[in-house]
């Protein structure tokens, strides 16, 4: 997919808005950064004159504008009622993030985007709200709200993707589930959620790049895919198992570190919910892998043809190395 020059300018503006929001010393500056980020992402959504993109951009604008309004209202209440102000600020940031129980808009927006746009929504757009949430961990009430949202996100992200056949909605609920691990990490350790976010961003982006190169949008289209190369039929399942946190792939490393931190902090009940949801998400990752197992049987694909995938071969060695990183360096992280 070739992006015009204007899209690159809006993308740079989007990054600058995120950086402004993170580095601001006041909530007003953080709000300006969030608005710049919002107004830069909408032109990236409507890169083509398409009614679906227009509908998605309108929905995204309304949801984000509602969250921004709550942020302004809560900041105006700070002098009169600081506790209420902080609670409203946290709720608005959870709405911007798409975390449960304010997740209702996230799968719908994901369904209307192209694959490259979903990478931005799942990774860069989460960065600024999560940094701002980490600044709000000042008292026990706010931390309890974050932990409650984390547990709810784990359950909704796991159960919501069970009956989904569309890959973009599956990735959306997967993102909500991984957000629960990052939110629980924010309530404990600022550095840990950054490590988890880095691993999650790299692995999910590699999967989205594979889906984009294959031009598949639902599970049934994987069976009709012409990408019958053994490289594809092995690489995508490995990436999905890595995203699910199955050892010994790379995605298991941040989950293993999080398990250790939660056990040390005696947060056993949230850990049970997070591990249970991880098993459920692993189930619908395996359901995506099933067509690839069938494609490995030659009798099931008699008329399949090989397609030249040299346009995406630049990312393949990097993706392969990324998902086998857990095989290369497991021991130093196990004894951390």
TrEMBL record:
Keyword Amino-acid biosynthesis carried by entry: no
Residue ranges that the Swiss-Prot or TrEMBL entry lists as coiled coil: none
Matches recorded under Pfam families: Proton_antipo_M (PF00361)
Keywords: Electron transport, Membrane, Mitochondrion, Mitochondrion inner membrane, NAD, Respiratory chain, Signal, Translocase, Transmembrane, Transmembrane helix, Transport, Ubiquinone
Enzyme Commission no: 7.1.1.2
Molecular function GO labels: NADH dehydrogenase (ubiquinone) activity
Reaction catalysis annotation: a ubiquinone + NADH + 5 H(+)(in) = a ubiquinol + NAD(+) + 4 H(+)(out)
Superkingdom assignment: Eukaryota
Matching InterPro entries: Complex_I_Subunit_2 (IPR050175), NADH_UbQ_OxRdtase_chain2 (IPR003917), ND/Mrp_TM (IPR001750)
Catalytic EC class: translocase
Membrane-spanning residues: 58-81, 87-106, 142-162, 183-211, 231-250, 271-294, 314-335
Leader sequence residues: 1-20
Assigned protein family: Belongs to the complex I subunit 2 family.
Purpose of the protein: Core subunit of the mitochondrial membrane respiratory chain NADH dehydrogenase (Complex I) which catalyzes electron transfer from NADH through the respiratory chain, using ubiquinone as an electron acceptor. Essential for the catalytic activity and assembly of complex I. Core subunit of the mitochondrial membrane respiratory chain NADH dehydrogenase (Complex I) that is believed to belong to the minimal assembly required for catalysis. Complex I functions in the transfer of electrons from NADH to the respiratory chain. The immediate electron acceptor for the enzyme is believed to be ubiquinone.
Name of the featured protein: NADH-ubiquinone oxidoreductase chain 2
Native organism: Pseudocarcinus gigas
Gene assigned in the entry: ND2
